[in-house]
Amino acid sequence: LPRARFEMAPKRQRTASPGQSPHAEHAPPPSDDDDDSTQAFANLVDDPMSSSQMSVTDNPTPRPHDTVKRNRSSSNANAALDGGGGSGGGPSEAVPLAKDKSIHDRVHGTVALPPLLVAVMDTPHFQRLDQIQQLGGCHFVYPSAKHSRKEHSIGVAHLAGTLLKHLRVQQPELQISDDDVLCVQLAGLVHDLGHGPFSHMYETFVKWQGGQEELRAAELPLGEEREAAAARAARLQRWEHEEMSVLLFDDLLDSNRIELSAYCSSAACPAEQRRFVKALVKGLKPAEEWPQDIGRDKSKRFLFDIVSNSRNGVDVDKLDYLLRDAMACHGASRPFELSRLFESTRVITPHSDRIRGARWTQDGRLEGGRRDRPARASADAVQAQAQAQICFQLKVATDLVEIYTLRAKLHKKLYQHHTANVAELMITDVLKLANDHFSFRGSDNAATTLAQAALDPKAFARLTDAILDSIYVSLEEGLDEAQGLIERMKKRDYYRQIGRSTQISPLPQCYYCGELTEIRSKFCGACGKKCKGRLHASERPDEPHGPNNPAVAQLIGKRPPDFEQDILTFVDEAWRGEVGTCSDVDWCVWLVDIKPPSCSKCSVLGGDHGDNLYWRVYDPLWNTGFYNPKEEGEQK
To answer: How far is CA 331 from CA 228, 334, 531, 602, in A?
Structure first.
């Protein structure tokens, strides 16, 4: 009530006239509306519940609406998902706030979010992320791995604004507008809207369901029904959470009547701003054609490097989840310092003949590099790398290496933990078993299955991790097997490994002691003898230090889909002997691998360890731009 009183009767500095009481110096000037404002405040005191016309946050509204209210009840939340709002029959309009809202984050401390982001957060579409865990099934191994996609989204929005505001201060010539900052922050906030229950496990389930429907469609007679079933199966197999994030973002703005024009500058087109945010969520590949309908020219290409960087993979999304996951699971204080990294950033347009110290020839060949191995490059690739991009000072190159090292450690100890992978496999099996028997309330209150929700944004917006408990307590028939799996998970009775596992090492072995050696090593670190003549483990399966499983020699150089069946074919007889006959056993191959970053550069290295034997190595910083401010022409 005191805050409401100050908002309704703000203090005004006035000079006291002669003979006037000093206490009247700050009193508001008399007006004809004094009686009305006094009566309004008296009504507010008499009926405190009548304050629903005030903003639900601690921010006063810049423009009052006589008939607009921000509905917060659960019934109105459900109506918002169906396209409706309050009792008036139409969706309620979000009242714009006047200033930023402060939120305390466990990783970044106090963060300030602009009013548009607060309005987006106060919607059912975004609040569902609070019930979707960031790490899926990793909490079965690390009990503290329970942070949500909501926390991560807020952190990404904060980091995106911090980085872009730094660039605007350091380089005014970039002409970064307030609308640019707002749209990039909004893209960071909504980039994970399309994640389903248990994040990537739902995506795996949807694509598997698409394959099953494709098989069923092939059995139908030729006609429109078969074509429709095949088209639906193809949509499920191509389903990506980024596309669903874009669809949910549109539905979020329309269902809750959030007008971007109320927050952006008057000169900006709301439709172009919306398309720009969606383009930022999906990302833009270096050689991809520039979209012409986002209200910005190619000089703003660097804005796509902030949230989803397809050029070199260093974006605020990756920086936030690596920090958040490491701190939540391993108790690390701060594995790397973001402020040092952000302070070293600049937007630079490299010349095409000076990219990575190499020289592009007229015929599109790249001369230079390791062992002067020329590489073919198209004109589009050269032009793509010569666009304006976010670069880093050379002194923070080791910091970026530490970030990718942390990524590799988290993959080995957290993301690819064998127990977590088994738990996620069981959750995926639960979704598969329950799909044909379990339904929930979708759009227009129609019964919807788990797979059908992937093609219906309004129904998808109701899916959270709570779907597992809903299946567990459901009384519908046909869920006995799915509920039995959930019961096993609650007892930590996970799938068990049958037989032994084989680890294929990517490093060469010493010929004398069998220890693994680095590719460029001249001498073995264990026995000290020369590494010349050393061979890969697959080359010497009969040696004492070579693998005993003959399948290993058959698998080197093959793609994972190609050698899954080979593992089952060449599996040792001892494996099968442990469980008796194999006819009653369902064999499952689970491949665990740390994939190289998609933006990394693959090179082939040879050496003194054998003829016709090479190793593939990846440089994650190959496409990352660096500059030295102490050198002349550092802008080039």
So the answer is: 51, 9, 40, 33
Residue 427 has pLDDT above 50, yes or no: yes
Strands 389-393 and 626-627: parallel
Contact present, 213 and 481 (Cβ < 8 Å): no
* CA 635/CA 348 separation, integer angstroms: 6
Maximum average pLDDT range among 165-169, 222-226, 266-270, 518-522: 165-169
Cα 613 to Cα 26, 339, 453, 529, 607: the distances in Å are 86, 43, 50, 20, 8
What stretches of 556-628 adopt beta strand conformation (E)?
Answer: 601-605, 615-619, 626-627
d(CA 507, CA 509) in angstroms, rounded, equals: 7
Phi, psi of 210 (to 5 degrees): -65, -40
Question: 3-state DSSP call for residue 112?
Answer: strand
pLDDT for 106-129, tens place per residue? 999 999 999 999 999 999 999 999
Label residue 459 by pLDDT band (50, 70, 90). Answer: very high
**Calpha distance 84→206 (Å, rounded):** 28
Each residue's pLDDT tens digit, 123-152 = 999 999 999 999 988 999 999 999 999 999
Structure tokens at 635: 């802008």
Pair 115, 95: CB distance under 8 Å: no
**CA-based nearest residue to 328, from 142, 513, 187:** 142
* Packing angle of the helix pair 241-255, 178-190 (nearest 10 deg): 120
- Alpha helix (H) residue ranges in 443-548: 457-460, 467-473, 480-490
313: alpha, beta or left? (left if phi > 0; alpha if psi -120 to 50): left
Q: How far apart are the first and last CA of the chain?
A: 59
Helices 200-218 + 418-434 axis angle, to 10: 40
pTM value?
Answer: 0.73
Phi, psi dihedral angles at 148 (to 5 degrees)? -105, 170
In sequence order, the 6+-apart residues with CB closer than 8 A to the CB of 620 are: 313, 400, 401, 404, 596, 597, 599, 600
Phi, psi of 307 (to 5 degrees): -90, -50
CA 499 to chain centre: 36
pLDDT mean across residues, the chain: 75
Show which residues are catalytic: 241
Helix, strand, coil distribution of the chain in percent, nearest 5? 45, 10, 45
Give 214's DSSP letter.
Answer: H
Could you say which DSSP state residue 96 is in? P
CA distances from 79 to 66, 196, 415, 547 (A): 22, 21, 37, 62
Angle between helix 178-190 and helix 270-282 axes, rounded to 10 deg: 50
- Mean local confidence (pLDDT), 568-595: 51
Paired with 129 in beta bridges are: none
Judging by beta carbons within 10 Å of its beta carbon (0-12, 13-18, 19+), is residue 320 exposed, middle or buried?
A: buried
